[in-house]
Each structure stands twice: as structure tokens, then as C-alpha cells.
Amino acid sequence: MQTNMIDKLVSFGYGILNSGMDPAKSHEENKSVQRLIIFIFFGILVNLISVLMNLLHGLYISILINLTSVILLSVCYFLNKDGKREFARGLGILTINLYLFAISYAEGLRAGEHLYYFPFLLALIFVIDIRKNYKELILTSTVTFFTAALVFIVAPYVSSVQTINPEQYSALFSSNLSLSLVITAGFTYYVLKTLEINEEKLLDETRFKDTVYDTSLDSVFIVDSRSMEITGCNKKAVEVFGLSDKEEITGMPVKQLLGGEMEEHIAVQGRQQFTKQSPWYGNMDFVRKDEAPFFAYVNIVPFSHREYSFCKISILDITEIKIAEFEILKAKEKAEKAVQIKSRFLSNMSHELRTPLNAIIGTTNIVLQEDYLPSQRKSFEILKYSSEHMMQLVNDILDFSKIEAGKMVLNRAPFNIKDFLQKIISPFAAPVSEKNLELRMHADDQTNLEIIGDEMRLIQVMNNLIANAIKFTEKGSVTVEVKPVAIRSEEAEIRFSVQDTGIGIAENKMRQIFESFMQADIETTRKFGGTGLGLAISKRLVEQMGGNLKAQSEVGSGSTFYFTLKFKVTTRRRSYVSEENLKGLSSLDGVKVLLAEDNPINMMVAKRFLEKWNIEIIEAENGLKAVELFYRHQPDLLLIDLEMPEMDGAQAVAEIRKTHPFIPIMAFTAATYDNIKEDLLSKGFNGYLPKPFKPEELHKKIEESVAQQRLHEHRKAS
Length: 718
Ligand code: ADP
Prior knowledge:
- The protein is of the alpha/beta class.
- It is built from 23 helices and 17 strands.
- The protein has helices at residues 2-18, 27-57, 60-81, 85-107, 117-127, 134-154, 166-214, 235-240, 254-258, 260-272, 319-369, 377-404, 417-425, 429-434, 455-471, 522-528, 534-544, 579-584, 600-612, 623-633, 649-657, 676-682, 695-717, and strands at 219-224, 229-233, 280-287, 293-305, 308-317, 413-416, 438-443, 450-453, 477-487, 491-500, 550-554, 558-569, 592-596, 616-620, 637-640, 665-669, 687-690.
- The structure holds adenosine-5'-diphosphate.
């Protein structure tokens, strides 16, 4: 019951103390509301104590004055509660001033009421926030001093309005003195405590700022924008610039330490501070005290403090980052150079390898067409297979390095899908029947289209997939399917797939088979051979064409490799040379061809075929000879190797073109490089025939060129 009462009293007290507080306002503001309430209640308490004293002595005018003060202070309380804090404070201070004046007058100075001016002056510091309302404090203190002075002038020593005997005076004086002393002591304690707390707070704040400032990664300088002098810096600045301490640079002209460019930026930023533009960021060079230069990222922020304008300059040393960047750049250049050298080396090497390989393949073909001892057949076949395999290897490595170097340029020319299918299937007729497999072809009629793309590279991908399917299938079938996904008038989306019933690929090997030089397992290499490059090349080629080569497989059941590509559909028809006609390889009697070739074996191989077709051959072993023989024999066509001693192919062509701009000249070469066709055309060749050549292609080119040449001459004559 008793505790309940106490609880109620305490919460009532808190209620009064917290009245007028607003949770939306800051802690500081609410604190000053609370202080005003304490001030008001202190005043009321002193008034009520005085009323009791006055009752004791029968001083009714004093009671009246005290009660008036209580009423006015209560009004202040309610004003404060209503949020009219400023008004309440003003009225409170005025009330106490009037009260002290009135009571001193009514009781006379002898009663000692004026002694309350001491605690009242201290209470002003308590009520008015000295940091925010400095002027108000000065004003109210002055007014209070003034009324105190007035009290001493106007108030009588002994009251003229009430009768107070000497004993009463002495009792009143003692009680007023003791009460005012107690209140003074209370407020003095409070003021000292507040000062201590404020100082601690200030110190804490400074310590916090110093910690932030001194532990920052960048060097920070504060520069007075008007005098252009450094007014302070952090520890890092001392460290980075190699100085002995902060004092060394305080007052130093900014130009002396940070250079003229910095001074200009500060001048601009100092002006911008008033237009509130964004801070300046950028890179600058600086020099340390020991003359060592360094590179930095700089940020200049203008700000004002106590009506002075400053700039905060943050300097982050990025020399190491710059060096690393430079090293990376150098390494990149080096790597690019290495790739170029590698690419050139591979190209040169492949050329070097292709020339003798071409000779080996050609010679083997000739021998296989001619008479040989039956016991030699197997050896020749091994020779043919091995040399062709080696040629494939050289081509694969060349292709792969080209793709890796990003130099694989796809051709864009119209081709017919039906013809394309024929081309991808026909080379596999023999190996399929050898292994007793079934080669199925599913082609939709709708795919009989003419599209634009790189036929040769698409053939390369499909050949690789079909060759793999045959290689890894012992029994069953290989199915090649070409299916339209979407065909529109201008665009066709076609799905290509090769399915087999072979050994299949384990799930965990699916990803690595598309990587270069990767085979599903080591056994595969032993059993089936191969380089592990085919799928890597195919995948990249398909990607370059805009598709994605994927595989599905089950060990023991077989695999399916598939991809989808989009092509532009063309209505332009090419004049296709019928495959049947090609196989006839008719006699080209009466045709005169100049053959320039420095390699005797290559010369022999080419001659062997030309002779078969009854062509008259003029042989030249270098460019110089070719030019000379051309003028002497006037051939219908020239087949010219590119690299020859004395005078190379291109120089010889340039010579001949001076007088004969229309004579057909074919480059006959084992070299391959980017844009070879364009390059040869620009050098005056009409086309080129890559070595090792396909006899039917050589035949076709000769036939076409001669026909064109004759047509041209006929037109010229008529
Ligand atoms: P290569 O055939 O020259 O070894 P590829 O890149 O063409 O190189 O193929 C990589 C590997 O993928 C092969 O060694 C083989 O293990 C696996 N592989 C490719 N195609 C098939 C297939 N149709 N069936 C089973 N395994 C295959």
C-alpha cells in the first residue's frame, strides 16, 4: 500500500518533470525544457517556503507577493507544457525579477530577500543555454543586475509598508540567507558539473576526430583558401611527404609543398565553395622531402569554418598501383607479341611442313595410280594414310592457333544446303562400309535452300563430328540429320546433328572433350588415335557462327552432337558445276599452261595430272624464268607458286600484268594466311589453288579460266 503510494508519487514527479517534452525533438532541446521546469518549480518552492515564513510572522503583503509569484510561475509551467518554451522562459525570468524587487521593497533590505539575486544569476546560466543563447544570457543578466541595483536604490532598509520587529528581521534574514546559500550551492554545483561534462565531451569529440583524421589512408591537408597557407595535416601526410612533424608544415605556403597546380585548384575550389559545386578529383604528381617523386589520386573539398574558407586536400599515394598497371600493360604487350610470334611461327612451320607433305601425298597418289608390286601396296597405303593424317594434324593446329589468336575470319558466301549435304556425306562412304556401319542421312526437303555462310568451315565441323561418330562406333549406325527449326523468307534456323550407336561418353568427361588436346580417356588415344583438337576447333567454329555445339551421350548406347545456326537466305542462284561433270575430267587438249614451281617433286606431281589431260606444259623453276617463258610461249593460263628463288610469284605476276592485264593467272600454293584470297587478288592473281590440290578442282579451274580467256579474246577480235 505504502510502496504503491510512493510509486504513484514518483511517477507524478516524473510526469511533471517530463511535461512539455517532445520525442520528435532532439535530446538537447528536451533537456532545456526539463531545465526550465526545474527552474519554475525551484521558484515555486522558494515562494511557498516564504509563504510559510510569512505566515509565521504575520506578513500578509509578503504572502500576497509570494502567491502572485506562484501564480505567474504556474502560468509559465503551463506555457512550457504547451510548447511555448521561449515565452515561458521570458515570463519566468521576468516574474523572479519583479518578485525580488517587490518583496525587497515590501520587507526592506534588512530582511535579506535581495540575497536571492546570487542563486538567481546562476539559475539564468542553468535555464539559458550559454552555447546557443549567449546574447539572451547577457541581456537577461544585465536586466537582472539593473533590477538588483534598482532594489538597492529604491528599497528602504526597513519596510515602510509592513510592521516587522527586529527579532522578525533577524529570523527572516537568517532563513533567507541560508536558503539562498543552499540554492546558490546547488546551482554552482550544477554549473561546474556542466562545464566539466562539456569539456569532456569536447575532448572526446576532438579525440574521435583525431583518430579518424590520423588513421586515414590518405594524406590530409587543411589549407586556408585566402592566405594559401597550410593550417594543418594528419599523421599520414607527415609520413608520405617525409616530414619530421606536423608543426613543420603548419603555416607553409601550399605552393611550396604541393606545387603551383594545387594552388590553382584551391583558388578555383575556394571560389566554388559559394556556388556549391562538386569537389575536384584527379591525378597529380608530387615530390617528397627527399626529392623522390610519387603519383597520387587527389580530392579537394572546400568548406567554411567560422567565416573563414578552407580546402581539405586528400592525397592518396597510388604509385604502386600505377607501377603494377604499367607492369600489366608491359606483360600484355609482351604476351601479345608472343602470340604474334607463335602465330607467325605456326604459319611458317605449317607452310614448311605442308610443302614436303604435299609432295609425299602427291607422289603416293601417283604411285597408287601406277604399277607397283602387290607386296608394296600395304606400305603405300600406310604412307598415304599417315601423310594425310599428318596433313590433317598440321591443318588442325593451324586452325586452332588461328582461333586462339582471334584471327579466324569466316567467309560469307552463298551455298546450297543440298549440295553441302552431299559434300559432307560422300567422303565417308568408304570408311562406313569398311566398318560395316550404316550411314543414314535425314534431310528435310525444306532445307533445299541457298543460304549465306562459310560452307568450308561448316563442312569441317560436320566432317569432324561424322569422323568421330564412325571412329567411336563398332556396330550400328551413324545418322546425320539436318532439320529446319524456323524458316522465314529472309532467315533460316537450322539444326545439325550427328548421332551414333557407339561407345558413348561418360557424364564426367562431357565438358572436357570440348577442351583442346582432351580425350575422354587415355585408352581412346591408344585405340583410336586422334589429336583431341577436333571438338575444340568445332565448338569454337560453331560459336563463331553464332551457335553452340552440345553433346548428349550414354556410355555403351551412343552419342549425339548437335547445334543450331541461323543463316540469311539468298535468292541469288550460283551456277553450280555438276559433280558428275567434274568426275569426267575430260581431256583439255590444245590448252597451254605455264607452270612455275621451284620444288621438283611438286612440279612432278602437278605435271603428272596436267599430262593426263593432254595439256601442253611450259615449266619454269623460278619467277624470272616464268616471265621469260611467258613472253616466248604465250600460254593460255599460268599456275604460279608464291615462294620461289630469283623472283617470287607476286613479282612475276606484276611483271606480266604490265603488258597482259587479262591473262588468267592462278596462285598455286601451300601457304595459308588470313585474307589470302583478297591479298592474291590485289597482287594481280585471278584466284588460287591450295596445295595439296584436288585433281578435279585443278581440272575445273583450268577449264573455267581457259574458257573465260578464250571468250575474252573472241570479244576482242570481233
Ligand atoms: P580426337 O577425336 O582427335 O581425339 P576430338 O576433339 O574430336 O579429338 O574428340 C575428343 C574426345 O571426345 C575423343 O578422344 C573421344 O574420347 C571423345 N569423343 C568425341 N566424339 C565421340 C563420339 N562420337 N563417341 C564417343 N566419344 C567421342
